[in-house]
Write a structure and sequence with these properties.
By secondary structure, the protein is mostly helical. The protein has helices spanning about 5-15, 25-30, 35, 65-70, 85-105, 110-135, 140-160, 165-180, 185-190, 195-200, and strands spanning about 80, 200-205.
């Protein structure tokens, strides 16, 4: 097996385990914690409850175990969300896809450029995502959000492996589209059929065909 492919498989295994960003130091140092979703490993004993997620670490308050990821399910097709919540969900899918591409296709430089350029928007969308799950999931909101994030990472990782011959070209085109667009256009850039299919939610309001 070529060394590059072997390294790629190791990175993807780490990502599915929920600690991918730790393998990309540049991402962690240049981007805000909320935007990069840095997974944290609790240092306390197992019996001690994990601390509540801070405002800046809303997307990585707990390290989901593989069993949780396997159990995560897409919402029922009847579920619908507001345009603001949909934008937050779409953004999370897009960011996860670009993170996988950074690890799988040696795209760390462009991923860091994406994080730096879109940092303020990503932080706002991260806050919206947390609010959505707190509003709809109550006490289980954080757990459900973490399950979604883990499932999205799993899905993106599987796609990169199943489409090994074409995935990096797809990722390159996606980076090019994102980076040539201004941050204010993120809602439009991230509103794609395959992205909505990943998270499984639909907008409650009827919009024009895309």
């Amino acid at each position: 097996m070529p060394k590059r492919h072997a390294r790629r498989m190791v990175w993807l295994s780490v990502l599915v385990a929920g600690v991918a960003v730790l393998a990309v130091p540049a991402m962690a140092t240049q981007a805000s914690p909320a935007a990069t979703s840095t997974a944290q490993t609790p240092k306390a004993a197992a019996a001690k409850p994990a601390p509540k997620p801070s405002q800046s670490h809303i997307e990585a308050s707990a390290k989901p175990v593989p069993q949780v990821a396997a159990a995560a399910k897409k919402p029922a097709r009847a579920a619908c969300v507001s345009d603001r919540d949909l934008a937050a969900l779409n953004t999370r899918v897009l960011q996860t896809e670009l993170m996988v591409a950074a690890l799988s296709c040696e795209e760390r430089t462009r991923y860091n450029e994406f994080i730096n350029s879109y940092q303020n928007v990503l932080t706002g969308r991260g806050n919206d995502l947390r609010s959505f799950f707190q509003r709809t999931g109550g006490a289980q909101g954080t757990t459900r959000m973490n399950s979604l994030i883990t499932r999205l990472a799993n899905d993106a990782s599987k796609q990169s492996q199943m489409q090994a011959d074409t995935y990096c070209q797809f990722a390159s085109d996606l980076f090019e589209e994102v980076l040539k667009s201004p941050p204010v256009a993120l809602t439009t850039v991230a509103d794609k059929p395959w992205i909505r299919e990943r998270h499984g939610y639909t907008a409650c309001t009827t919009s024009a065909s895309r």
